Amino acid sequence: MNKQQPAILPEDAAPAAGRSCRQCELSGQGSRVIWGEGNPEAPLFVVLDNPGAREDKAGQPFLCGTRETLQATAFEAGIRPGSLYISYILKCRPRRAYDKERARATCINFLWGQLAAVKPEIIMCLGNVACQSFFADPAAEVKQLRGRVHPVRGYSVITSYHPLAVRRRPVLHKYFLQDWRLAAEQLKQPGQG
After folding, report:
1. Are 146 and 159 in contact (CB under 8 A)?
2. How far apart are CA 49 and CA 40, in angstroms?
3. 122-126 and 155-160: which strand pairing?
4. pTM for the complete prediction?
């Protein structure tokens, strides 16, 4: 198994419309907009529910456990950092209770715009919350969706467990790795994109 130390991926700056959005209460929670990280033109677009902690209390960037698990497993499956872009349903990190349904319904429109602009070959949707929003199905669950490619709005979508769930329940790692390998195989298919 190849091991590579995961690195902090460069952050992608949010466009003006994203930075100035006040459509949901997350904008008032003191959290900044996190548009995405990695290569914005990458063939593999990863969707998580929301940004996690990105800086320590002194403001220095650090690699959280979620991104570390994600990147290490992607590399193990043969996907290099330059082939990867990570974004979110919510563009701000929630800091306290909020109207989840309204925030997700609002923020996902930014995600659809991102996807239309870059047209990735494969989308990986990680975790039940992200899958429920992305598939527009409140009953969507990774354990039923994972292991195959789904067509959603003209995109090829693979689902898997949230990296935090994999960290908490290591028995899920084998499935997480299988799903990343499926993504790697899809990226090698001629005629994709």
Report:
1. yes
2. 18
3. parallel
4. 0.89
Question: Using alpha carbons only, what angle is made at residue 79 by residues 171 and 170, rounded to the nearest 5 degrees?
Answer: 10
Strand order in the sheet with 84-88: 11-12, 36-38, 84-88, 44-48, 122-126, 155-160, 149-152
| DSSP helix/strand/coil, 37 | strand
CA angle 163, 166, 169 (to 5 degrees): 155
CA atoms of 145 and 61, how far apart (whole Å): 33
CATH of domain 34-187: 3.40.470.10
Rounded to whole angstroms, how far apart are CA atoms 131 and 128?
Answer: 5
pLDDT tens for 48-60 read: 998 887 665 665 6
13-24 residue pLDDT tens: 888 888 788 878
